[in-house]
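Chapter review: from sequence to fold.
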Amino acid sequence: MRRQGYRVIPVNPNETSVFGEKSYPDLSAVPEKIDLVDVFRRSDEAGKAVDEAIAVGAKAVWLQEGVIDSAAAQRAVDAGLMVVMDRCWLKEHIRAHR
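The token string follows.
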């Protein structure tokens, strides 16, 4: 998605840099406004990322293909976030721009 012009800020507690970008340990450490949180975690861990997205005031959460947590998705919707679940951001971008 970076090659498509999107600003992607890595968040990974196990990395200090990803693709040459500074990586942050969690969403609360990111020093700028977050529009979309793209969740690449197992389904049983996705809820924590969704709750962090809600806490930092993100506008949306995107749970990648195979990542399903209906309760977390509902919490996000209830908090006013847009939610996409079990879909690939890149595949959807390509489909929309054909």
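Two observations follow directly from the output. The radius of gyration is 13 Å. The first helix runs from residue 43 to 56.
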